[in-house]
Write a structure and sequence with these properties.
Blueprint lengths: L2 H8 L7 E7 L2 E6 L2 H5 L4 H9 L3 E5 L7 H11 L6 E7 L4 E6 L2 H5 L4 H10 L2 E6 L6 H12 L1 H15 L12 E7 L8 E6 L3 E4 L28 E3 L5 H4 L2 H6 L6 E3 L1 H17 L11 H9 L1 E3 L6 E4 L2 E7 L7 E7 L4 E5 L23 E5 L12 H17 L3 E5 L5 H15 L7 E4 H12 L6 H8 L11 E4 L2 H9 L4 E5 L8 H9 L6 E4 L8 H6 L4 E7 L2 E6 L3 E4 L9 H10 L6 E5 L3 H15 L2 E3 L6 E3 L2
Parallel strand pairs: 2-3, 5-6, 9-10, 10-11, 11-12, 16-17, 17-26, 18-21, 18-22, 19-20, 19-21, 22-25, 26-27
Antiparallel strand pairs: 1-2, 4-5, 7-8, 7-28, 8-9, 13-14, 14-15, 15-16, 23-24
Helix pairs in contact: 4-6, 11-12, 11-15
The structure holds zinc ion (ZN).
Length: 633
C-alpha cells in the first residue's frame, strides 16, 4: 500500500470499522461498515482533507447498503411524482445512484431533504441530474461501456492513483520543466505538446492535421523525446479533430494511462472519432484505428469539472478552466513541482461572450508561462463584430429565400453550429427572417443532443432560460433532424427554401461536401462558410474563387462540378479570439506571465503575435516550430 494510504488509515480509529481504502485516480476513498460513522463522521474526514491536502471521500461498505431493487422502490417512494423521474442508474462500485428527473428541483426537495432521506434509508449516495432535452445515443453507449467495464475501471483508477502517489513526498519543490512541440508549432493542425519534468511526462492534446497530405497528418511521434509507454497522462483541451483525433491511436499504440478532459469533451471526442472511422478523412484516407480503440479511450478517460484541482502525476496538478471555444472546452493549468512552475495552455479559446458560452477565464492562482493559440494572431486579422456578421447572414438568408433557394452552411459539428442554431432560432422567433425549415444533419444533431445533456457548461443566460424558464432553444420546432441518406435526398429534392447545416465545416468530406455537389451548379442557392478554412482545403479554394472543382468518382476518373451558387464567408462567428481579443486576453491575464509561447497559427501569425506580445508586455516570447524543445524552468 502506498505510504499515503497507510498514513491515513493510521488516523482512523478502530471502532469506525474501515474495511478498505484505495485510490480513484487522485481521490482517496475510505469504505466503512459503520452506518452511523458513514452518515455522520463528525468532521473527521474534513480534518484529514485539511491535513493531507487531498480529496478524501467516505463511502459505505457494499455489504451494508440496501439491495438495488429495494433501493429503487424506496427512492420512488421518497421522490414526489411531479419531479418526473426518467431514469435511475445505480453505480455499485461507487455506492452511488444517479436519478435523472425532468424537474431536478423537486427531486432534490427543500434544502436537499429528499436526498438526505434516501441516504439515511438506503445508504446509497444519490445524485440528481436533469433529463437531457434530446436523447443522445453516444451518451447511452458511453455509459454502457463504463458500466460493463466497472471492474476494469476500479482497477484502472486505483492503478492511476498508485502512479500519482508513487513518489509521494509532502512539500517537494525542485527539478526542471521542458516542453516539446510534436505538432501545432507554427501551424493550425495536429496540436500535440509534450511536457516533461524531472518526474513525469504528460501530453497536451493529440490531434490530426486536417489539410495535410498523408506524410504530415500526424504529430511527430518519431520525435526522440516521445515514448508512448512513458507517458503518465494525456490531457485534452477540446474535441476538435486537430486536438483529439489521434488519442485512440495512442491507445492502439499501447498507451494505458489516464486521459483527462471535461465530460462534454469526452462524449464529443468519442463521437467525432467514430465519425472519423466511418467516413474517413478527405477522400480515401481511412482512420488509423478501429471502434475498439475508441471504446478503450473512453474506458481510460477521467472527467474533471472546471476549476476542480486534481493531481495527475507525483509532481503535476492540473486545473481545467473555461476556454469559451466549444462546450466543455478547457484551458489547462499545470501546477508543477509544488509551485516550481505554473504553465497555462490555452488550447483554442474565445475571449468574447457568445450566445452559447462565457468568455475564457483570465484569473489563475499562479502563472509563469502561457502557451497561447494564434489562429487569428496577425495584426490584420480584424474580425467583423458579431452584429455585423448576424446582419450579413440575415441578408444572405433573406435574399436566398426570395429566390426560392437553399442556404447551405458547412459547420464544424461542435461549437459554431450550436451558436448559429441559437442565432437562427432567435431570428425566426422574432420574425426577423421568414420561418423556414432548418435541416440539421446527423452529426450536428448528435452533438446538439450532447449539448442538452450538459446545460451546466452553457453561459449564465442560457442556463437561466433552461433552469428557470424551462425554455431550451435547442428543442425549438424550427429544427429538423436529417438522419439518413434518404432524408438527405429529400432535402436536396425539395423545392422549398430552407437552411441546411452540415459537417464538415472545413469541407474536407462528409455531408457538407455532398450537399455542395448537389447545390453548387444552381445560382439560386447560397453557401455560407463560417469557420477557418485551412490552406489546401476545398473551402479555401472556393474562397479563392475557383469555379470548377474536380471530384474523383473512382480511382482514375473524376467529375467536374461548376460553381454557380453564391459563395459567402462570414468570419466573425469564429469561436477563436480575434487578434485584438488575443492581446486583450494577455493584458487581462492575472497574474502576469513571465514567458509567452505562441502556437496554433500559420507561421506568419505566430511570429506576428509573438513579436507584438514581446513589445507590449516586455517578456520573453517564443514561436516554436515543430520538433523544437523549450526548457521553461
Ligand atoms: Zn478548436
Amino acid at each position: 500500500m502506498a505510504d499515503i494510504l497507510t498514513e491515513i488509515k493510521a488516523k482512523l480509529p478502530k471502532d469506525k470499522e474501515v474495511t478498505n481504502i484505495n485510490f480513484e485516480a487522485a481521490n482517496i476513498i475510505v469504505y466503512t461498515k459503520n452506518k452511523d460513522f458513514f452518515l455522520d463522521n463528525k468532521g473527521l474526514i474534513r480534518t484529514l482533507v485539511g491535513e493531507f491536502k487531498k480529496r478524501i471521500e467516505l463511502r459505505p461498505d457494499p455489504s451494508i447498503i440496501m439491495d438495488l431493487e429495494k433501493a429503487e422502490k424506496e427512492i420512488k417512494k421518497i421522490i414526489p411524482k411531479e419531479a418526473d423521474i426518467s431514469e435511475i442508474t445505480f453505480d455499485p462500485q461507487r455506492s452511488s445512484v444517479i436519478i435523472e428527473a425532468k424537474k431536478p428541483g423537486s427531486a432534490i426537495g427543500q434544502s436537499g431533504e429528499n436526498l438526505k432521506q434516501i441516504r439515511e434509508k438506503t445508504l446509497w449516495v444519490p445524485l440528481v441530474k436533469r433529463t437531457p432535452g434530446l436523447k443522445s445515443k453516444i451518451i447511452e453507449n458511453i455509459r454502457k461501456v463504463l458500466y460493463e467495464n466497472n471492474d476494469y475501471r476500479t482497477k484502472f483508477l486505483n492503478q492511476t492513483g498508485k502512479r500519482i502517489y508513487s513518489d509521494w513526498v509532502k512539500g517537494k519543490k525542485k527539478g526542471w520543466v521542458r516542453t516539446s512541440f510534436l505538432g501545432g508549432g507554427r501551424q493550425v493542425g495536429r496540436s500535440c505538446i509534450l511536457v516533461q519534468t524531472s518526474e513525469s511526462r504528460v501530453l497536451l492534446d493529440c490531434g490530426i492535421n486536417p489539410s495535410a497530405n498523408k506524410e504530415n497528418t500526424y504529430p511527430y511521434f518519431d520525435c526522440p523525446d516521445f515514448k508512448v509507454n512513458e507517458i503518465d497522462a494525456v490531457i485534452v483541451s477540446h474535441p476538435h479533430l486537430d486536438h483529439s483525433a489521434m488519442i485512440p491511436l495512442l491507445v492502439k499504440y499501447g498507451y494505458t494511462g489516464p486521459i483527462y478532459c471535461t465530460a462534454p469533451t469526452r462524449d464529443i471526442m468519442a463521437l467525432l472519432a467514430l465519425d472519423y472511422i466511418s467516413i474517413g478523412f478527405k477522400e480515401m484516407q481511412n482512420a488509423p484505428y478501429k471502434t475498439i480503440d475508441v471504446k478503450q479511450m473512453v474506458k481510460q478517460t477521467i472527467c474533471l469539472n472546471y476549476e476542480e484541482v486534481s493531481d495527475i502525476t507525483p509532481d503535476i496538478r492540473i486545473t481545467l478552466y473555461n476556454a469559451g471555444h466549444t462546450l466543455g472546452s478547457a484551458m489547462v493549468h499545470l501546477h508543477i513541482g509544488n509551485g516550481l512552475h505554473n504553465l497555462l495552455y490555452t488550447g483554442d479559446f474565445n475571449f468574447e461572450r457568445t450566445r452559447l458560452l462565457a468568455p475564457a477565464s483570465t484569473k489563475f492562482p499562479r502563472l509563469e508561462t502561457v502557451i497561447i493559440e494564434s489562429t487569428y494572431g496577425a495584426k490584420d486579422d480584424i474580425l467583423p463584430t458579431r452584429k455585423e456578421c448576424e446582419d450579413y447572414l440575415l441578408k444572405i438568408i433573406k435574399d436566398t429565400n426570395k429566390r426560392g433557394g437553399k442556404v447551405l452552411m458547412p459547420v464544424l459539428g461542435v461549437g459554431r453550429s450550436q451558436e448559429v442554431m441559437l442565432i437562427l432560432e432567435e431570428l425566426m422567433t422574432k420574425g426577423t427572417i421568414p420561418k423556414m425549415p432548418i435541416y440539421v444533419q446527423g452529426m450536428v444533431w448528435d452533438i446538439t443532443a450532447i449539448h442538452t445533456a450538459y446545460p451546466d457548461f452553457f453561459n449564465p443566460s442560457i442556463r437561466k432560460a433552461i433552469f428557470h424558464e424551462n425554455k431550451n432553444p435547442f428543442l425549438s420546432d424550427v429544427f429538423t433532424h436529417v438522419g439518413s441518406h434518404k432524408d438527405m435526398q429529400k432535402v436536396i429534392d425539395s423545392k422549398e427554401p430552407c437552411i441546411i447545416m452540415a459537417t464538415s465545416g472545413m469541407m474536407v468530406g462528409g455531408a457538407s461536401v455532398e450537399y455542395f455537389k448537389a447545390l453548387a451548379e444552381n445560382p439560386k442557392h447560397s453557401m455560407v462558410m463560417s469557420c477557418y478554412q485551412p490552406e489546401g482545403s476545398l473551402g479555401r479554394r472556393l474562397q479563392n474563387g475557383e469555379k470548377e472543382i474536380a471530384f474523383s468518382v473512382s480511382e482514375n476518373r473524376s467529375e467536374i462540378t461548376k460553381v454557380k451558387c453564391e459563395i459567402h464567408t462570414i468570419q466573425g462567428f469564429s469561436n477563436h479570439s480575434s487578434r485584438s481579443q488575443l492581446m486583450a486576453f494577455l493584458h487581462k491575464l492575472n497574474p502576469k506571465p513571465k514567458r509567452i509561447i505562441v502556437n496554433h497559427g500559420e507561421s506568419s501569425k505566430c511570429l506576428d503575435l509573438a513579436s507584438s506580445a514581446h513589445k507590449t508586455f516586455r517578456v520573453e516570447t517564443n514561436a516554436p516550430r515543430n520538433l523544437d524543445g523549450l526548457r521553461i524552468r
